[in-house]
Amino acid sequence: MSSRPLILAVDDDEKLLKLLTVNLIAEGFQVMTASNGVQAMKFLEGVPPDLVLLDISMPVMDGFETLMHIREQSEVPVIMLTAADDPTTTSKAMRAGADDFMSKPFSIRELLARVHAKLRRYAILNSSV
């Protein structure tokens, strides 16, 4: 992982992507954004991110399908973001390979804390391999 981790934020809500980008950059991260799963997969084929923030409800390719494709090629940490706040969606996301799950609206402070925690854990796991 570089000194400035790269975060890929994937969401069809342009305002949320801007909010995430501003806050992630303020925390010292590099940020790439995609508005759907197809764009996200193109980024993943190029420069692999250190963590993915992935919305579930998106056009073209939803978050579950995108996550399935991510897991076929990478173990990058993925935090799912969704407006759905029910146990079925949460368990489906976790079973599909998500590392964490946050319901919208969420606290940006909590999201940033989870991003840092996932990156620390991912760095520790990769350094022990």
Q: Could you list some keywords that capture this structure?
A:
129 residues; Rossmann fold; single chain; alpha/beta
> Which residues sit in consecutive blocks of at least 5 with pLDDT less than 50?
none
Major beta sheet, strand line-up: 2-1-3-4-5
Q: Strand content of the residues, in percent?
A: 15-25%
CATH architecture: 3-Layer(aba) Sandwich
Please provide a written account of the structure.
The protein is α/β, with parallel strands linked by helices and 129 residues long. The protein is 50% helix and 19% strand. It has 5 helices and 5 strands; from the N terminus they run E-H-E-H-E-H-E-H-E-H. It has helices spanning 14-26, 37-46, 63-73, 87-96, 108-127, and strands at 6-10, 30-34, 51-55, 78-82, 100-103. Strand 1, helix 1 and strand 2 form a beta-alpha-beta unit. Helix 2 packs parallel to helix 3.
SSE topology:
Elements: E1 6-10, H1 14-26, E2 30-34, H2 37-46, E3 51-55, H3 63-73, E4 78-82, H4 87-96, E5 100-103, H5 108-127
Parallel strand pairs: 1-2, 1-3, 3-4, 4-5
Helix pairs in contact: 2-3
Structure at a glance:
With 129 residues, the protein is α/β, with parallel strands linked by helices. It is 50% helix and 19% strand.
